[in-house]
Amino acid sequence: MTKQTLAQFQQQFTTQLLSEQLDQSSLEFLSQLKQQFPQGDALDEATLRLNIYRNNVIFSLSSAIGDLYPIVKRLIGDECFNQAAIDFVRRYPPSHSALVFYGAGFIEFIKRYPACVTLEYLTDVAKLEYYSHSVFHETDSDNLDPALLAQVAPEQLGQLVFKLQPAVRLFKSPWPVEAIWQENLKQQPQFIELEHTSGDYLLIYRQDFEVQVVNLNPHCYHFIEQLMLGHNISEAWQHTVQQAPSVNQPLDDDELGPILGYLLSLPLFATFNLGTIYNEEHNE
Amino acid sequence: MSSSTYQVASTIPADAGVGLKPQHFDTILDSNPAIGWFEIHAENYMSGGGARHQYLTKIRDKYPISLHGVGLSLGSAEGVCPKHLSAMKKLIDRYQPGLVSEHLSWSRWHSSVLNDLLPTPYTDESMDVFCQNIDHTQTVLGQQILIENPSSYFQLQHSDFSEVEFLVTLARRSGCKILLDVNNVYVSACNHVFDPQQYIKAIPSELVAEIHLAGHSLEQIVSGGVNQGQIRIDDHGSLTCDAVWQLYQFTLAHVGSKPTLIEWDSNIPTWQVLHQEAMLAQQHLDQLKVVSDD
Question: Domain residues for B27?
Fold first, then answer.
């Protein structure tokens, strides 16, 4: 047999580590392993030795997925979850050695996973778990200094554009995701009503290095969503008012103050600028 | 954060240290234990921020830190990943580690990361690949690195070098130092039936800059219903065994006193157990100092 190049060896070894089972194509790789138990069968021994690495790789990566999605694991059971995680790892191994960046793709994977397709809320629970994880590890940034905000002239407030902290995520779900998540953090979760719920409008952020999950009022959600998109306060509020009928909750202009005050009381914002005015000057 | 200055210098002393685990963050900061230094896995700190970095910054202010990579894949035929290398560089700038180390292994093929320390054929081609990758790494990081001998569960038919010949030649050619993992020598020596003392004696003492100790487990190899033998698995999940402590004493007699780390990465014990293990290593190091002072 011709000696393999290093690249060929590494390509073959990778295939053997990620394949579901060893087959005829594994023989060439296995034949390169030295026999060290002379009384036994060389192929059996090589297979057992290779399996140590196969198990290590699959176990370490699927455990990382398990650590990332403990509530999804609890909802579908260890056996189903472990198989799903193994299938995911074999198909989509990480592309970065820092596993903190691994596992976002599991959200879409579990949505289409045959054993879980009937659990429509599962994807959103996975999303909440992944967002909590990414918020926990997200880049640090100083919080907005409220004293600077106090210096803005009242007539200019509507033009303010905020830059949010990196550790902020928003998502809405037709399911009571937050309740499912909170209940399943407990030892003995209570039954959760899935029918007749109005859905969740979730804000995930970090306070003193701990992840916080808040189910916002829909208007507040739409408003901060618009701010995150880079709209100034006036534009964001206008959009929120337009959206109000869709959530069947009346909205009065008086509510801008309390909503903005509430959001500013949380560590969500990094900086602000007088975006529109600045842009107009800049364009002249 | 790149220009941080810490109260404690970077240099890793020839004392015992332990692998830093999040489970022990609070105990360490509350009790300021007597321990020479901590080692971190680089990949666990490659995120942008959050509590882990907050804790590490505080701990770094009190103790020297060694940066131990497990994912650079220095044996990769396709070279090291520039993104990974720059993440390492960022950590070095931020935490100013006293030592930076990696492994004699590979873990990546194209875009697939396998998250394990995989064995490599000890051939002339592998030597060239490792030398190029280490040279590039040392240039980008702006410092010398240490390379750790792996534990392994199979050997390959085609080899131009024994593992220890490969390691020593590599260190000489690339200008890196050696992180001698005594547990790995023992595990591989049992798995592949060679003399662990001969392996250690083959490494010139001036090349060794750090020592690792850890626990391992034992698995029976059963094939066709017949027990073929046993294999030692390097799982870092228990106390260092007596045979490895003896080999450690032999190692110290050969290389002199070197920074020694207790690694414990699975079934993480209480801080007390881990600290006690480190103090055992410290006793051996102290004895050596007494002898050399005489």
Answer: 16-293
